[in-house]
Amino acid sequence: MAKTTHHYLIFETAGGFCGIAWSDAGITRFQLPTKSAEATERLLLRRLPDAEPGAPTPAVLETVAAVKRYFQGEETDFSGVELDLAGQDTFFRDIYAAARRVGWGHTTTYGALAKELGVGPEAARDVGQAMAKNPVALIIPCHRVLAAGGKIGGFSAPGGSSSKTRMLELEGVNLAPPPPAQQSLGF
């Protein structure tokens, strides 16, 4: 079996430096922003140690442009981006396909995705595991998948759950509790 060649590009966005890697079949990895190109490259190569810098294909350039628009706060749809998820478990692929249907400014929960896939609520943990192992965060919008009760839940990207919150705020999603219905009299 021939070894898959991966190329990558590190690029700057309004949110920081991102990284993208691809094969002939599609995007294989996406690194959410860090403060430096070096840190992004290090994180990307940790997952794809044999990847080499390369000249992006037109499809990769389109995805990079979309990522830049996203971090400028422009509504962006990544559902048409061609992915190479070779080596991913079939159930994880199903979870990722369901997560890709959660659009800009919307959220769902681990349990709701499990239910959508026709598995019981106990599979919500599996959904969470898939989100934590998402190789192309943002393109598969794991940041839009919340814990039960709309709680932020975990996020394995740089910055953790605060990065997840910032991304959702960029999309107009406010996770703060509503103001109290009854105001204080102020004395």
Features of the shown structure:
single chain, alpha/beta, four-stranded mixed sheet, two-stranded parallel sheet, globular, transferase, DNA repair, methyltransferase, Methylated-DNA-[protein]-cysteine S-methyltransferase
SSE string, helices as H and strands as E: EEEHEHHEHHEH
Radius of gyration, CA atoms, in whole angstroms: 18 Å
Arithmetic mean of pLDDT = 91
Low-confidence segments, given as residue ranges, are none
Q: Which descriptor suits the 3D outline?
A: globular
Number of helices: 6
**Strand count, sense and closure of the main sheet?**
4 strands, mixed
Going across the biggest sheet, name each strand in turn. Answer: 3-2-1-4
Straight-line N-to-C gap? 76 Å
Helix content estimate? 25-40%
